[in-house]
Amino acid sequence: MASPMSAGGFLAGLKAEGVKVVEVGEWEHHNRNHKGPWGPVHGVMIHHTVTKGSAQTVALCRDGRPDLPGPLCHGVITKDGHLHLVGYGRANHAGLGDDDVLRAVIAEKALPHDNEANTDGNRHFYGFECENLGDGEDPWPEAQLETIEKVCAAICRHHGWSARSVIGHLEWQPGKVDPRGFTMAWLRDRVRDRLK
What we know:
CATH architecture: 3-Layer(aba) Sandwich
CATH class: Alpha Beta
Protein name: N-acetylmuramoyl-L-alanine amidase
InterPro entries: Amidase/PGRP_sf, Amidase_domain
Number of helices: 7
Number of strands: 10
Strand content: 15-25%
């Protein structure tokens, strides 16, 4: 059982890992906590945005859409390798996912196939949207991939988690395909090496 770190501790941990952070508005107080609890937290979830253009991507993830209020994540990782903090607390990013996957993340074991959507992921995961069209062809610059790795490692380091606590949206919720363009096994290997 892990309580979410404080906003200040979160920011300090990211900077200590070498993440280039952009603070967007009063991100520390922008959340969906009135819709339910945030925590205990058990892992980090990675998404792609299906958008182009950093400024509009950050604005969308901060403010949300008419059918899905923001924040849509805790931070947006843009192609230039910057992390834009847009919210802290409960965020509309994970939705309902598989309780068997959550149990595997908690136990830091290999993930089962996700085949049901019965558990509130917004409560239990830090979420990061990564600027990419998600078509399998839009490139992932090394600066962006390195920031994804550093962000995941910073959170795992704070909580004492292994890289198995990092999952993709596609591993959580049936029908999701994000992130597309690299595998989560590859990302977990990079996070594991950084944690060493």
